User: What shape does this take?
Amino acid sequence: MGEARVSFRSWCVGVMLAGAVLPLMGAVEFKPPCVLATRVTIAPPGQPGTPMIVTGRVVDARDRPRAGIVIRVYHADARGIYGTNNGWLKTDSLGRYEVRTTRSGGTPAHIHFIVNNRNEELRFAGEGKRTSGRPDWMNPPIVVASGPGDSFALYRPVKQDRDGVEHVVRDFRLK
Assistant: This one.
């Protein structure tokens, strides 16, 4: 049996390829920048898609606002490709945050949030769960019940203003 060896040059090429491929998968910026704002714009200028503003708050188990919680947010662009829509922010003194972006193009459309090292998602009410190869009639729209505590739900309603900007509220409760 021969010993498997990887030359330094092969290793460097592999690292360079990983550096080119991982950003395409949304796996960029693993470390937050030194200075974080409570509002972030993650869609690059001129990106096609419907403008969207996601707001919310982070609270503890007793519904008290949590200030300074670091959040990583990312999603696919309108074509369904990861890599350009990502960023970091932190909550303000009342636990609030704001993300400005364009509507994601995943199936179904969704936005990823990493809050306090926990992976969370935001999905949009009225869109069915898409399963490849299944016709639309087998993917019924998701309906969000209204009532207290709704804003913590995975599926959230989308409201559009007069300018065509979509607005969504997604809150997170820490355990």
The helical segments are 8-21. The mean pLDDT is 76. The two ends are 52 Å apart (CA to CA).
